[in-house]
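call fold(seq) -> C-alpha cells
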Amino acid sequence: MKNKLLPTSIPLFLFLLVFALNFTLVRAQEVSFIYGDALPDAPELAPRANYSVGARTMNLVHKDQPDVLNFKDGKDPLYDRPITVEIWYPAQLKANEETLIDYEEVMGTAGDTLRPLIPFTFKGRAKRDAVPVKTDGAFPLVVVSHGYVGSRYLMTYLTENLASKGYVVVAIDHTDSTFKDANAFQSTLLNRSKDIRFVLNQMADIKKTVPMDPLANLIDAENTAIIGYSMGGYGVLNVAGAGYSDGLGSFFVGMTGGSKTISVHLASNPEYQAQKDPRIKAVVAFAPWGMERGVWDAEGLKGLKTPTFLVAGSQDDISGYEKGIKAIYEGTVNADRYLLTYKNARHNVAPNPPPAASLQPGLHIDEYYRYAEPSWDERRINNINQHFVTAFLGTYLKTKDYTNYLAIPENSNEKDWPGFKPRSSTGMELLHAAPAN
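ret:
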C-alpha cells in the first residue's frame, strides 16, 4: 500500500535521506556558530569588516612593583610582576587559509574547592601568529581589561571583531585576578590601573624595544582606546582621569594592614593628577565596579574628561545601577559620555556567551552564570556591543561620522533605532550628555 503522505514519485528512502541531510545541515550550522558571529537580527555595524585577523600571545614583565600581598613591617617588598597579553591585529592571509583558532581557557576559580579549575577550549575566527597586514600607516590601539575573575579571552567576540575593523587589540591577563591565579583582592585594587598603563606603554615602545617585531609599525599608540569590564571598568576609568576617593585609600590601608600604595591612584594626590595620558582618546566601561562602594566621589569623577561609553544592566546586582553605573554617568560631568542600558539585565553585559563546557551536568551554576544573562541572549548582547563600540571608537579614534547610530531616541521601545532591523531594537535605553565645559 502506498503512503498517501508522500509524492508517489519519491521513494520513502529518498525522502528520509533528504530529511537527514537537512537535519545534519541545521546541526552543522548550529555547531559552526563562533562567538561574535552576526545573528540574523544583528545591528548594522556588528558584523566583521574586511581584515583577516591574526592573534599572538606575548609575555611581559613589569619590574620592581610593590608586592602588596606580602606587606610587612611597614613596607611593600618589590617583585617583577608577570603579565600575559593576547594581541589581535589585521593580518595577511593566503587565499582559503584556515582562520579558526583554539583558545585554551579554564572554568572555576583557583583555590576554590567547590569550583575547581577545569580546562576547556573554544574556537575563534583568527589565525595564530599570522603575518601582519602590510600597510603604509598604523592602526589605533585598544587595550582591554577583564573582570575579577576573568582572563584575556573573556571578550573574544569583541577583540576579534575590532581587529577586523582596523585596530590592534591587546587584552590583558591581570596577575592575581584570572581564573587560574585569583588571589587576595587588594592586589586587584592596586594593580588594575597600573597594569593598563604598563601595557599601553609597552605597546607604544615596541618599535624601540623590539624594532624587528612585525607589529612594531602596526600600532598607533597615540590614538588609543581603553576598554574594561567590571573590575576592568574600575581600572580604565581611573586611568582615564577618574581618581579614586580618599575613602578607598583608607579602606585599602585597613585591608592591607598599613600599605599606602593605592595613593598613586587617588584624586587628591598631585602625582595622580600628573598622570593624565593624552594618548587615550576614548573609554568603554562595561558594568564598572566600585561606585556603590565609595570608590569615587564627586570630585574624583569630575577628573574624567575623555569621551566615555558606559554599558550597564538595569538590574546589575554586582556593580549596582542607580547608585552605581548610572551614578558614574551622572557624575562624570566633564566628559562627553553615553550610557547604554539593557533593561532587566544583570552584570554580564560584556563577556562571551556561556561556553559549551559550562552546560555539563553537575557543575556549579556559577560556571554558567559567569557568562549568561537570565533575561537576554548573550549572543544578542554581543552583537549590540559590537555595533555601538564600533560607532563610538570609529567616532573618536578614526574621526568617522557615526552620528546616525549615536544620536538616536533614548528609549528603543518607542521607535526603531537607526542601524537596527525593524522591530528588533527593544528593551534598551541610550543616554547621552555633553561635557559641562
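Residues 9 and 284 are 61 Å apart (CA to CA).
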